[in-house]
């Protein structure tokens, strides 16, 4: 019985260690974030989707590209780039929550018209 309780306690601790996705942040599609970016600038939003690309450890953060099937590939509105201390693997379904940032210039030619920054990433 003691072993079962210890295992249950470890499981609860592991679950609470997962990155938190802001429950109060409005849920948006990738396309909606692109479409409403001016109104959303500086606000926290949540998005769910599939990780399609990951670049870890760039400029002290991880760059995770998320798509949810919405948006237009030709216009670039089907992909949302998320920066975070958290990461995920290509192919994983994730819930992300972060601050909408426009025209972020990291220098050296790294200019992003739209980012979701300082995000939390939770693998689903």
TrEMBL record:
InterPro entries linked: NA-bd_OB-fold
Domain of life: Bacteria
Organism: Azospira restricta
Descriptive protein name: Nucleotide-binding protein
Extent of the signal sequence: 1-22
Keywords, sorted A to Z: Signal
